[in-house]
UniProtKB/TrEMBL annotation:
Family, similarity comment: Belongs to the FKBP-type PPIase family.
E.C. number(s) listed in UniProt: 5.2.1.8
Ranges for domain PPIase FKBP-type: 119-205
Family matches, as PANTHER family: FKBP-TYPE 22 KDA PEPTIDYL-PROLYL CIS-TRANS ISOMERASE, FKBP-TYPE PEPTIDYL-PROLYL CIS-TRANS ISOMERASE FKPA
GO biological process, alphabetically ordered: protein folding
Keywords: Isomerase, Rotamase
The protein's name in its UniProt record: Peptidyl-prolyl cis-trans isomerase
Gene symbol of the encoding locus: fklB
PROSITE patterns for this protein: FKBP_PPIASE (PS50059)
Pfam families linked: FKBP_C (PF00254), FKBP_N (PF01346)
Keyword Manganese: no
Gene Ontology terms, MF aspect: peptidyl-prolyl cis-trans isomerase activity
Reaction catalysis annotation: [protein]-peptidylproline (omega=180) = [protein]-peptidylproline (omega=0)
Coiled coil: none
Amino acid sequence: MSDKFTTIELQASYGVGRQLGEQLAANSFDGIDVTAVQAGLADAFEGKESQVEMQELQTAFTEISKRLQKAQEEAAAEASAEGEAFLAENAKREDITVTESGLQYEVLAQGEGEKPTYESTVRTHYHGTFINGDVFDSSVTRGQPAEFPVSGVIAGWTEALQLMPVGTKLKLYVPHHLAYGERGAGASIPPYSTLVFEVELLDIL
């Protein structure tokens, strides 16, 4: 740890800068210059006149916004195409069932209990990944089953749960339109993501 920030004031000041930096890193763009950011921060804090004309600032912000939008659209198109190709190939497997909605699933374990309805609340264990295998969420890893209403989850889950007797474990392949669609889910799930879940129905509450 650094010994430069030895007083409460210095430590709090560093903390403010750290928080601003984390926010900036989460909403950054190619070519951002931290030194220029520091200059703008210092000038604003000290009440100095801007070193860049307001019109130039507006033009720069507009151009960067256009670049970010274009990059997002390209990433979304790529994710959509990758997901469609993956599902098309996956559907060829003999152990895969494809429903009318486009949901794909395979049975990992067949239970014999009651099936939930749209109005039910259930307890499940699940493990969620992207099609490349990267994990984005897992009750199994946390060691804590999840409870939720069948009607309160993504459409692919709502459909699948109503097909599952208690004790069943399915592997779901969920197209983006049955998952989080064109908006994604926060920072963890990008737009147009095809998702893969292993879902075990433990109980109907």
